[in-house]
Amino acid sequence: MKAIVQKVTSAKVTVNEELISSIGRGLCVLVGITHSDTEKDVEYLSRKLLSLRLFEDANGKRWQKSVQDEKLDILCVSQFTLYHRLKGNKPDFHLAMQGDKAQQLYQTFLERLGKSYDATKIKDGKFGAYMQVHIQNDGPVTIELESPIATESKTKEADTVVNGDKNEK
Fold it and tell me: SS3 for 13?
C-alpha cells in the first residue's frame, strides 16, 4: 500500500464539476493499493499517516506535530495509478488491485483512520470516478509512504520478472 501525502492549506475533490469533499488545513493523501495488500498494510499505513510529523509547533519549529496533534482534516483520494510500470512510454497498471476488492480495502483504510483518529475529520473522493483533485500544497511538503509488506512483495515480483522464477524447473 502506498500513499503520497501532501501538507495542504486546502484541498477539494470534484467530479463533473460537483464538489465531493473539501478540507482546509491538513493532509491530502493519494492512496494506491497493490494486489498483495492486506489489512496489515492498512494498519501500518494508517498508523504512520496519523503519526507523521509535518506541522510546526506553537513556537514555529518545523516537523514537530502530526495531523492528529493539530486536530486537522485528512482528504483521501484513491489512486490506482500509483502502482504503475512503464512499458516503453505507456503505463501498465497490473500491479494495482482491481475493482471490488480494492474498494473494500480502501474503505477499510478510511474506517481505520476514523477509528484511530476522528471519523468526522476523514474526507474522501469518489472511488473509481474520474476526479479532479485541487490541492494547495503548503511548503511545499510531499512525503511518500509505503507499507513494508507491499515493498517486500514488489521487490520479490521485480526479481521474478528480471531473473525468472527460481522455482521453475
Answer: strand
Catalytic residue among 34, 55, 79, 109: 79
> Over the stretch 28-52, which tens digit does the pLDDT of each residue have?
999 999 999 999 999 999 999 999 9
Compute CA 123 distance to the chain's CA centroid, rounded to the nearest angstrom: 13
**127-165 pLDDT per residue, tens:** 999 999 999 999 999 999 999 965 555 555 545 544 454
48 vs 50: CA distance, rounded Å: 6
**pTM check: above 0.90:** no
Given 6, 34, 55, 80, the catalytic residue? 80
What secondary structure does DSSP assign to 73-108, as a single string?
Answer: EEEEEE-GGGS-EEETTEEE-TTBPPHHHHHHHHHH
Q: Quick check: is 80 catalytic?
A: yes
| Prior bond of 91 cis (ω within 30°) | no
* The one catalytic residue among 9, 81, 98, 160: 81
- Cα of first residue to Cα of last residue in the chain, in angstroms, is 32
- CB of 33 within 8 A of CB of 96? yes
